[in-house]
Amino acid sequence: MTTVRIPAGWPATEEQALAVQDELRGEVVLDESGPPPGTGYVTGVDVAYDDERDVVAAAAVVLDAVSLDVVAETTAVGQVSFPYVPGLLAFREIPTVLAALDALPCDPGLVVCDGYGLAHPRRFGLAAHLGVLTGLPTIGVAKNPFTFTHDDPGTARGSAAPLLAGTEEVGRALRTRDGVKPVFVSVGHRVSLDNACAHTLALTPAYRLPETTRRADSLCRRALRDTTG
DNA sequence: GCGACAG
DNA sequence: ATCTTGTCGC
């Protein structure tokens, strides 16, 4: 497991973080469709926190997109680098997630984030931010609609409804299990929204959440538990 | 002006 | 995110 410190020059205030988002948001690439769903590698990333100790643990789990078998997995721990502020989540998660990704012995392929990409107040959520910093294709799959609105998707798995910021479609509410609350998919970097949804469906053969985030979630929690000091 | 608000 | 056991149901 890798250990990371807060990077030099990392934003310390909300104002600085907003400035970074403003500077990087123009680098998001939206005119690529991304890797074909159901092929190559798909990597889930997630983090867990210990607020008492101000410690954060991240995990990256690489799955074979066809079999959904684990190909590789890494963890990293570090000091919490930013408070939780809605709209600034990336500054809390990215340093440790980058360390976990860097430790992987193989190419991550598509990266699936637990949170949003373009579905964000300034269209630059965690998945978009991570994509710009790594150059990797990324998508965001969130468990809540945040501040956005949507009509109810049909009840069948695969049904979707636009996730709206006013009239702008920033993502999609996608039903991954019959009759179960949808997930909220948005583009991060170098992937189309249609493909982001197709990948999400390919990753949910049995549960509401993608296998990537389920695996990364349990691994980072375990890494946090196994941490001392 | 007062909430609500990814994880 | 996190605090947390059993329990109802397919």
From TrEMBL:
Binding positions (Mg(2+)): 46, 114
Named cofactor requirement(s): Mg(2+)
Site positions per UniProt: Interaction with target DNA: 84
Single GO term (MF): endonuclease activity
Known catalytic reactions: Endonucleolytic cleavage at apurinic or apyrimidinic sites to products with a 5'-phosphate
Gene3D superfamilies from the UniProt entry: archaeoglobus fulgidus dsm 4304 superfamily
Enzyme's top EC category: hydrolase
UniProt entry keywords in alphabetical sequence: Cytoplasm, DNA damage, DNA repair, Endonuclease, Hydrolase, Magnesium, Metal-binding, Nuclease
E.C. code: 3.1.21.7
Location of this chain's protein in the cell: Cytoplasm
InterPro entries attached to this UniProt entry: Endonuclease-V
Chief place of localization: cytoplasm
Function (record text): DNA repair enzyme involved in the repair of deaminated bases. Selectively cleaves double-stranded DNA at the second phosphodiester bond 3' to a deoxyinosine leaving behind the intact lesion on the nicked DNA.
Annotated family: Belongs to the endonuclease V family.
Name by which UniProt lists this protein: Endonuclease V
Species the sequence originates in: Streptomyces bottropensis
Lineage of producing organism: Bacteria, Bacillati, Actinomycetota, Actinomycetes, Kitasatosporales
Gene: nfi
